[in-house]
Each structure stands twice: as structure tokens, then as C-alpha cells.
Amino acid sequence: MNQTAANPFAWADAALKGEVLSKDDARRLLADESIDVAELAAAAGKVRRHYFGKKVKVHQINNVQNGLCPEDCGYCGQAKSSDAPVNKYPMKSEDEIIEDAKKAKEQGVFRYCMVSSGRGLNDKKADDWSRILGRLRDEVGIRTCLSVGLVSYEQACKLKEAGLDRLNHNLNTSEQHTPNIVSSHTYQDRVDTIQNAQKAGLDNCSGMICGMGESDDDILEVAYRLRDMKVPSIPINFLIPIEGNRLYDFGQLSPERCVRILCLFRFINPSAEVRVGGGREGHLRTLQTLALWPANSLFVEGYLVTRGDAKSKVYRMIEDAGFELDGAPAPVDASPADKFQIDEDPNILHPKAGKREAWTPKAPEPTAMSGSCGSTGGGCGSCH
Ligand code: SF4
């Protein structure tokens, strides 16, 4: 039997009317190669524009404690089960966390996300965080998000009272796939933490890591579950292959698949903040810009144990794609020549900023031929 052609713009209109994308359509969205990914992104962009206009929220992570974690999450370089050469350090000082937040605010960051390794909070840690959050509210005045593992209802209330806006705790994957990812805590432990944050009145943030051997239906399950739980902020991470981790690379992710996944989350969770999380640079590659049609938010300057693109590069991508930074204005380019510094190797292209010296044409001299254009490599202007 012939299937009728999929119509992503009909999905967009239905999402805007509050209708839920059917599971059959969701499966097609991910797997049907006859659905053009640019058309899909444009349709998801219609939904995104309705709720967020052209704004992009930029988040920055401060990994305040690295490594030394007793849990065994297979994707994480900080897990006890990982041999990744992670730079382990105990919790940063309060003053360092405050200073980093001030810098992030000055540089246009919308939300400052603090992440600490470990299974979860105990009473002492909850008190320490309450003190830090109070200082961030009084001394910096930036929106905050905290990711500290499992959190009880009482601890969530304490953090809320101290000024926390949002608690992050990802579902990471579906219920049935979770035992393949971690054995030291359960899917239900994760759901409980999200619900504790909600009951305490905290805004909450919960998402997924794709590329960990999951099926399309696992992705669907997470997208529908987050909708059912009314989660307003959904980071979608793409597994970064870190040597030494138990879960390394399943070869499941292409730039196009990453865009499809982001579109899926946008259609199923139309009004949620959908954020491109870890792995953006390496998995989306040249389609990073297209991701801004379904997603309205991203991280800058790296993740927990890996580096990411610098703010200046990300801000330029946002501007070039016709979107706007939400919050403080992006810093202006130092010079037009900066736009042409395409990598670290100065021999490739290294234009000088500032005024050029006057150029006087010389009489042509015979030259050795090199390459099809006849340039000797000095930059004829047509080969780059
Ligand atoms: S994800 Fe969090 S809880 Fe799991 S191993 Fe890494 S730091 Fe520990």
C-alpha cells in the first residue's frame, strides 16, 4: 500500500493548534528519507517562531566539580567505570563560581548552568548550594540552573528558597533503554527528581542524550514523556565519543539525523525551549545553523569534559542565520578580518586587520606554474 506524502507544514499547523503528533508520523519524521530535511526544519521553524520569534537563548555550563563520581553512567567521563583521562577536581571555591558568573553575564550569556558530578545532594551540599545561589542572586543577578544529580523534595524547596530558577535532571533515554546505560540508579529515580523540582515550584529542565544505541521508539518515548510531564526546557545532547567511556560510538548520528531529532522534539513539545546540547559541533557540523530552526537555544564554550565552540563563533553563526541573541547584545567583531580566520594555521589564511599599504603594480615576471590556476600559492584570490 502506498503511503500518502508526509506534510511537515501540516504537522506544524497541528502542533500550533495543540494537537499531538501521532506516533506513526513521528516515526516517519525520523526515518522517512523522502522527507526533505530542509523542509522539515522550515516547518519546525514555523512552530519555533510562534513561541520564540528569532531569539536564541545562549547557556553556558560551569562544571564546578569534575570527576570523582561513584555512579556508572556509561556515557560519562566522570563515572567510576570510565578510563577517560578527565581532569578531576573537587568543588570550585564560591568566589570562583561567582566570578565566572559575572563574566558570563557580561558576555551575553542568558543562563548560567552549574553542574556538579556525583550521585546527588546530601544536606550539607544542599546548604552549600543555597549559600552560593543566594550570592548569585544578590551579587550577579543572572538566571541560574543547577544540575547536581538526584534531589529530594525537601532539598529542592531549600534551593528554590535560596533563589534557584531551574533544576536540570535529564531522563537521558527511555525507560527500557536505561538499564543499558546505567546500573547505579534507575529511570524512576530520575523521574522522581524532576517531579520533586516541579512540586517545589522550580522551573525544570530535562532532556536526552542521543546516539547511545537507542531505537527510534526510545527517542519517541522520551519526547512524549517530557510532554506529559510538561517539562519546559529540553536539552538534546548528542553522544560525544570519549575514549575510555563504556559507551563510545554507535555510528547512529549524522548531521541530518540530528536535525530530524531536534524537529521531532519541537513538534511534540511545541512551546518548550529545545536546546542543542553537547556534541553539537562534532555531530551537526555544517548543519549547525539549520538546527536553529527547530531549536531556540544552545550552549557555548564547551560541556562537562570537552571543549565547544567559543562564544564569538557561536554569536556570529546566530547573527549570520538571521537570529538574535536573547538577553544582552552580542559583542561586536573586533575587525572585519576576524571573519576570515578559519582555523589556527596562519599559513592557510591570515589577513591583517587595519589599513592596507598602497599597492603598486609591478611589471609581470615569468613564474613557475603550480596548480591548475597557475598560482604559486601566494593567494590569487580565486582558489580559497
Ligand atoms: S552523569 Fe553525573 S551521575 Fe552519572 S557518572 Fe557522570 S557525573 Fe556521575
Keywords:
single chain, 384 residues, alpha/beta, TIM Barrel, 10-stranded parallel sheet, 12% strand, globular, disordered C terminus, binds iron/sulfur cluster
Structural notes for this entry:
The chain is an alpha/beta fold and 384 residues long. It has one domain (10-325): Alpha-Beta Barrel (TIM Barrel), CATH 3.20.20.70. 35% of the residues lie in helices and 12% in strands. It has twelve helices and ten strands. The protein has helices spanning 8-16, 23-31, 37-52, 94-106, 123-140, 153-161, 178-181, 187-199, 216-228, 255-268, 280-284, 311-320; strands spanning 55-65, 111-116, 143-147, 166-168, 203-205, 208-210, 233-238, 273-276, 297-300, 324-325. Strands 1, 2, 3, 4, 5, 6, 7, 8, 9 and 10 form a ten-stranded parallel β-sheet that branches. Helix 3 (37-52) crosses helix 10 (255-268) and helix 6 packs across helix 8. It is globular. 39% of the residues are buried. Iron/sulfur cluster binds at residues 69, 71, 73, 76, 78-79, 117, 119, 149. Iron/sulfur cluster is lined by residues 69, 71, 73, 76, 78-79, 117, 119, 149.
